[in-house]
Structure of Na(+)/K(+)-exchanging ATPase:
Amino acid sequence: MYRRSSSFSSITELFRPNNPRRLRSRDLSSTRLNALKKEIETNTHLIPLKDLYTRLGTDPIKGLTSAAAVDLLEYYGPNTLTPTSHFQWPKMLLKCLFTGFSILIWFGAILCLLSYAIESSMKARPSTDNLYLGCVLIAVDIICGLFSFFQNFKSTKILKTFNNMIPMSTKCIRDGVWNAEMPVANLVKGDIVHVKAGDVIPADIRIIESKGFKVDISSLTGESRAVTRSNTEGTTNILESQNVAFFSTQCVEGWALGVVLCCGDLTALGRVAGLAARLQPAPSPLCREISRFMWYMSIWALGLGVFIAASSFILGYPFIQSTIFVIGIIVANIPEGLQPTITASLTLTAQRMVKKNCLVKNLEAIEALGAVTIICSDKTGTLTKNKMCVRDIWTWNRKYSVLDLDFEDNLKNDKALQALKTCGALCSTATIDENGEIHGDASETAILTFLCAYNDPATVRQNYPKIVEIPFNSTNKYQVSVHHDKNMSRYVVVMKGAPECILTRCNTVVVANNNANITNEIKESVNKAIEDLATTGERVLAFADLILDPKIFPKNYEFDTEDVNFPLDGLRFIGIIGLKDPPREEVKNAIERVRTAGVRVMMVTGDHPATARAVAQEVGIATTPTCHVVTGNDLRNMTPDLLYLTLEKHYEIVFARTSPTQKLQIVEACQRRGGVVAVTGDGVNDAPALRRADIGISMGITGSQVSKQTADIILMDDNFATIVIGIEEGRKIFDNLKKSVCYILISNVPEILPVLMFILFSIPLPLGVMTILCVDLGTDMWPAVSLSYESAEADVMSRPPRQGDGLVSARMLYLVYGHLGLIEFAAGMYAYFTVMAEHGFYPSDLFGIRQRWDNEAVTDVRDSLGQEWTYEERKELERACQATYFVAVVVTQIMNGIICKTRFNSIFDVGMKNKVLNLGLIFELLLACILCYVPVLNDFFNTYPLRLQW
């Protein structure tokens, strides 16, 4: 009878649809995440099949009973990937609206509305400035929040992408009856299923019986070739075990009968999907910088608020009036234009990067890429082409490289190469369709593609039609077929497989265009060739043939592959073909440039250690033969501290035979060391690491839909060198963002100090709320954003990644608040006092006049010349003064825009080559004129048409 575990500690129980312990949703999700991070620990692939049937309560002939299957389905749930939680878009939207710098803006908006409410309770005709400002701040926050929401909405689609990989139905037996259309969702542990070529594996299954069964597992493990799966003895690591086929991988050849071991969330794919969906991406460096700056501004604003509150109390202002003052000074400290400026600058940079084949899905990833210190790169499809090719050929005592210029000549003259062409065409199981396209697994396709360049395999196959074939299996390690030689009216046996296996079945070899007996010397030579090719990361296949005697094997001879009745020994050894997934041509130079920029590159792959080391040396990740290689088994025995020390000790590291959870473990270890980590990948197995990294980078052409959905950046040309462009753009945009932030903050000073003058010295308000809004969200915006178009002042790729260089530094704050901002404030106050003086109010008479000035009941305020001013006349003069102050700020901001163009070099060296900034500075002045002189606008923004005079 089937068995169920009742222990909640069992991972199977943990992922049941119902919550056994009724844990809080957050606790259950965290517990599941921690469970998924652990390596798969099971012995279901190691124990004898008879014991496995007993454990699962199944029968290999009849399968499960329908009653048992229904009970198991109800208890454990369907064979699907369940979402982490029901998607609640309002919750995500609120998170986007109330995070980072937006919290400060919301706080400012609430204070503005509160100030308007207080003023409304005190005055019959309150000023609407604070109401308008509050509404504008809310609008800014909502727009930026919605933008962030749509950017982050992609994370909710990750599990949907995984679910697209799952087949709809499969062939399953229950109660002794086969059902060819069994819904995959209804499969349970213990079900017996049948899969054939073209089918997608419906669950994690252990092979019971198979024939020529090959599975493409590249999306799950990163291996670029189909692998054989059969009923053999398993290995400790289930992911490397040859008797297990995994959920969502595809059968490309043969057939198999298997028993279901795991379903849904507990399959290898389910674990990867669960990790990718549940992991939270690391906060970007820019996000951390903005949060830190928000706290600085909050402390500074609150400090000023406390100062104003104390000063108001000392000066004898009423409590309500003091509250309005405190609100005003806090709001004045908020740089409303900062968040839109950063968003717009990053968006424009993203658009430029698209033209360079770099699609940015997450805007913050642009700057993060510039700050990256470690790149953890996948091998297959990222550093290599993910396309097996014939690289080298060995025949007796001679090695040929297909890249050599004289290879084609050698091909014509060498008898062994001629024989190899024929044998390869007949042995390859790949096919050529009517359009000339080649189909088959990676290795077979590579052999046939190579032969098509120098031969016509189709003609060879017509002249040598196949009679019978024994497919490759992991026990024999060879594939053999018998063909009829039409021209000579005889049969030929051709064989390919593991070189050591083929060699033992041969007694002759092609030597110098003749056949010679195999000696110990020849065996040593062959073994050395195998070793040499293997050390370069090549997959080696040996080829042999045998001409059958027509007297023993006459025409129409009945060949039997079950009870083999033709020779499998005494063959002629022809040669060896070395297959390799070649590195991309541009990768080596790209890695060299990245290293010059101080970025460490590590390979993290699921492939064999020897192959990984060879590719690492070829592309420049490993510059010495002693490059440190860490395998998945090594990682399994490492503590987090030991992995940390390994990363510290060895600069050049290659991680091989790693599982998805181990890739995640490596990324988190690098982040614990303080690194900003970028992960490149193209397969499903890369999804958790892509999700957890500071920057996830996927391939646009060869990348799976899952990797694209999870990544922050997609390389549209699959070119690793595009990462170099991304790093360069990231570093440049950070430098330019510092310029934009500096420019925005400078105008903050002449906005804060007038409020302080208004409160402390009781003068008429020099700059109104609406004119502050005109500066922050009007005249400053274009120039601030256009600074992102500035060219790099120096070679940003010749310096190490930034460390400790924040978006806002002490040096910048001194420049803003202690120098340029004060000059701008002085220019504004000079303009303000000048207009006041021209109309009769000298500076000495303005101090202490505010209460009478703002009192509607007072109609006889006298100026320095003895003239009396009504309330309406005073307010009209105040508008003119505020407009003058506003224009003075705009003019000085134009000069500050030129100053902010460069951080290090002289403006005379840099020049005014940024046309967007030049237009922005002109626009800034034109907009100021429009706001002052257009009748409807100057009434709304409380500005005034100024008179031009010398």
About this structure: Confidence is low (pLDDT under 50) at residues 1-9, 20-27. The longest helix spans residues 285-315. The domain at 389-580 is CATH 3.40.1110.10 (Calcium-transporting ATPase, cytoplasmic domain N).
